[in-house]
């Protein structure tokens, strides 16, 4: 069985092939932010499943294949360690204070936090929540003062991105940013598979008094394409369970680690 982070990477490869048609292995390696050996193993896995066609030095989707469904990619990611995400989401609510302005990230972990907030109306009704997450906004509509950042919708994460979004982010200040990531590298740096989203997360962190990482244990140990933060940029990390090396890295940087598992 492939690990959760590996499944996210496989989905990303299919998205990239749908966008570009054919890609060389070296290009995929750079876009994914992994080693060449990892990319080749991923391509072997997808080829065995019949989802791609391997070429000399690259890959493409099979001839006549239907375009990958971005909505299904997103829904599939919701099921990865769903129990862990629900536990850490409930724990994250303990860091939110009544009356705060919260920036809640996009993505499946942020969605779990939004669902937890909806179950705590005594707190949620006092908050102002800002988000660029389409699903997050839908979940919290009518539950609090809600501000949605405008821009272009990035389908694979149900997020709103682009220059317009970056400009809007810079107009506000936030008490707390609950930030997700694609992965956490062995040095504890937060990474994302999409450069524009990484820039957006960095911009939000620059406007927030505190930033708290919301990420389950499956995110640890590999570098994504774009780095947007170091452990020292965080006040806390809320997770279902922190692997021992991760715990050592974050605690040495003075980051509070809250394990909800």
UniProtKB/TrEMBL annotation:
<keyword id="KW-0804">Transcription</keyword>
<dbReference type="InterPro" id="IPR036388">
    <property type="entry name" value="WH-like_DNA-bd_sf"/>
</dbReference>
<dbReference type="InterPro" id="IPR036390">
    <property type="entry name" value="WH_DNA-bd_sf"/>
</dbReference>
<dbReference type="InterPro" id="IPR050313">
    <property type="entry name" value="Carb_Metab_HTH_regulators"/>
</dbReference>
<dbReference type="InterPro" id="IPR037171">
    <property type="entry name" value="NagB/RpiA_transferase-like"/>
</dbReference>
<keyword id="KW-0678">Repressor</keyword>
<dbReference type="InterPro" id="IPR014036">
    <property type="entry name" value="DeoR-like_C"/>
</dbReference>
<keyword id="KW-0805">Transcription regulation</keyword>
<feature type="domain" description="HTH deoR-type">
    <location>
        <begin position="6"/>
        <end position="61"/>
    </location>
</feature>
<dbReference type="InterPro" id="IPR001034">
    <property type="entry name" value="DeoR_HTH"/>
</dbReference>
<protein>
    <submittedName>
        <fullName>Glycerol-3-phosphate regulon repressor</fullName>
    </submittedName>
</protein>
<dbReference type="Pfam" id="PF08220">
    <property type="entry name" value="HTH_DeoR"/>
</dbReference>
<dbReference type="Pfam" id="PF00455">
    <property type="entry name" value="DeoRC"/>
</dbReference>
